[in-house]
Design brief:
The chain is mainly beta. It has three domains: 144 residues, no CATH class; 124 residues; 109 residues, no CATH class. Helices cover 4% and strands 50% of the residues. The chain contains two helices and 35 strands. The strands form six sheets. The protein has a six-stranded antiparallel β-sheet, with no helix packed on it. It has a six-stranded antiparallel β-sheet with strand order 13-12-22-21-20-17, with no helix packed on it. A hairpin with a 2-residue loop joins strand 1 and strand 2.
């Protein structure tokens, strides 16, 4: 996302944290206040304007209707975003913000599928407009001074986002928009995670099943690997016998453990150490081992935890490829696969084969004793060499080089260089051909 776009969106969202919403105080001497014994005139109720019926991807400003030429969908953190401009041919989401006129909405996943009142809604949303005659710097919870009223319905299903908004600006201008666009790469999750009433959408869940025990970890953070839980703000967990993932209500005494982590305060609260009351429901899907339904309603010595989750879980055993780099002749290429087997007719010499996005393969030959995760130079063995692109790099051919290969817990680590034109750094899964 371009910096200009990022700053606009970020500033609008962060502003919510520093603005409070105060109720106005009424002066009893001001006109319009009722006084006993004085006949009060019947107040006139303003006529509610009829909302315009728009075609998809059109907008209307004070009765003048025009089409949007380009509409794009994206996401910013956990927010789902849609942006539109009258300009045609703008395919990239970020480029919409480079146009003179645009309309933009970003909302929390908790608001997907719900029509909300912009003047009353407390869940996070942001509306911006640079449309001619309908400028809105930023409308959000506690930031509604630019409008008199406004409603918005934002839906997102199967990759298609749809928005309909009707807004009366502070200067009396009426702005209506109706948008729709497709972006199948966004994942919207309306599941809820709340500690002490601080509600957030669930974005990731992990599952670990071993020896008849199921452990589930649920977090508002959007992460891809179990090890990253330690860098999230919060996560909750429940550990129980797999036979109890039947959907019936369980008490704390029916579980092995349940708790949550507040990493910001370096705190783990566990039912085995803190007085805990409440209920838990867990359902495993017999047709899909990654699908779980979890409901938690718990109290940890005065601190509440509520979790509602229905969705796919990630395998907690899958580890992140920390770094992957294949560099040859000054250019970097992706690594598409790694395998470990034996060199032909040499059971004491291993062959590590690295497939690249160039649709070719690099071979690393090394003695079995060198598969120890330590660095070894070409000069240490005639069986230690590299073959790539028709060239063999070895001590016998006058090459210098260092090879490091180690295997641990289903992962392989590779760090190779010939100090000239070839470098490989990889840590991740591999195909075991031994």
């Amino acid at each position: 996302m371009k910096m200009r776009t990022l700053l606009k969106i970020t500033s609008a969202i962060l502003a919510l944290a520093v603005i409070s919403c105060e109720k106005p105080q009424v002066d009893p001497q001001q006109p319009g206040t009722e006084h006993p014994g004085i006949e009060q005139p019947t107040p006139e109720v303003p006529e509610t304007p009829e909302l315009p019926q728009l075609e998809v991807n059109t907008y209307e400003v004070d009765g003048e209707r025009n089409p949007f030429g380009s509409v794009a969908v994206s996401n910013f953190g956990e927010y789902v975003c849609i942006a539109a401009t009258p300009a045609e041919g703008v395919e990239n989401f970020d480029d919409v913000f480079e146009q003179d006129e645009y309309f933009y909405v970003a909302i929390s996943p908790l608001l997907v599928g719900h029509e909300f009142d912009m003047m009353q809604e407390e869940k996070l949303f942001t509306v911006m407009s640079t449309m001619d005659g309908a400028f809105l710097e930023s409308v959000a919870p506690s930031m509604t001074e630019e409008i008199v009223s406004g409603t918005c319905l934002f839906d997102y299903k199967e990759g298609v986002a749809a928005v309909e908004a009707h807004i009366e600006l502070a200067d009396g201008t009426y702005l209506s928009v109706k948008l729709s666009a497709e972006e199948p790469g966004i994942i919207v999750n309306e599941n809820v995670f709340a500690i002490a009433g601080n509600q957030k959408p669930v974005r990731t869940a992990f599952c670990l099943v071993e020896d008849g025990v199921t452990a589930l970890y649920i977090t508002p953070a959007g992460i891809g690997y179990f090890a990253d839980l330690e860098i999230t703000t919060y996560y909750a967990y429940v550990i129980l016998d797999s036979s109890k993932c039947h959907g019936r209500t369980l008490g704390v005494e029916d579980l092995i453990a349940v708790g949550y982590a507040d990493n910001f305060n370096e705190l783990i609260v566990d039912s085995r150490e803190v007085k805990t009351t409440g209920t838990v429901n867990v359902v495993s899907d017999p047709d899909d081992p990654t699908h779980y339904v979890v409901a938690m309603n718990l109290d940890f010595d005065g601190t509440s935890l509520e979790v509602s989750f229905d969705g796919k879980t990630l395998d907690a055993n899958v580890k992140e490829v920390i770094e992957s780099k294949f560099k040859y002749e000054g250019k970097s290429y992706g690594i598409t696969g790694v395998s470990l087997g034996y060199m032909p007719e040499k059971d004491d010499v291993y062959a590590v084969r690295v497939k690249t996005e160039r649709n070719d393969e690099l071979l690393i030959s090394l003695p079995a004793k060198f598969l120890d995760g330590n660095a070894h130079g070409f000069s240490q063995s005639a069986d230690l060499y590299i073959e790539y692109d028709g060239v063999t790099y070895s001590k016998a051919n006058g090459s210098s080089g260092t090879v490091t290969v180690g295997v641990n817990d289903g992962m392989i680590t590779i760090n190779v260089t010939n100090y000239k034109n070839l470098e490989i750094i990889y840590e991740g899964p591999y195909e075991d051909l031994l």
